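Below is how a single chain appears once it has passed through the pipeline. First comes the sequence as given, then the structure the pipeline wrote out for it. We keep one example in the README because the format questions we get most often are answered faster by looking than by reading.
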Amino acid sequence: MPNEEFADSLQDLVDALVDVAFEYVDFNEDEVDAVYLLGSPTNDNYFNNFFYKINGEVVSGRRINTVIRKPVDLSTERATAFFAQGSKLLAQLAALFQKHKLEVPRIVRVVFDVKESSLGLQLDHKHSAYPLAPGQMVDVFMDWLDAVKEDEASALAAF
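Resulting structure:
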């Protein structure tokens, strides 16, 4: 059973993941409505990616500058550095679960509502719809992005 130390450490790691994704859009509180982050901290894969709701439109990271008034640096070098930070945090998340003898989640979904300053977290331990080979996490990410575009209320719904 998780204890307070585990809960606090998990919250710190989730907050840090959100900070990485929010920093990518230069902490633009005026235009960014929500930050969505998906990660996989299993099998040394540490896949992570994020998308956003900006000025009312849900967009992937590479499309940020099509909807934001204050453009951000979308260079490959910058994106690689941010994904490396996310992977490092996911490795720490996996280690936290292992330290507390808990099953490491296969998929982590985080939604940060910037306007409400609220955080939603889903830890998926099963996710039988995908075998989660390294390349298939992109499919999981795209499925979630598409689902949120269709229905924002589904952002943390299990599918």
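Residues 76-99 form the longest helix (24 residues).

See the next section for the split statistics.
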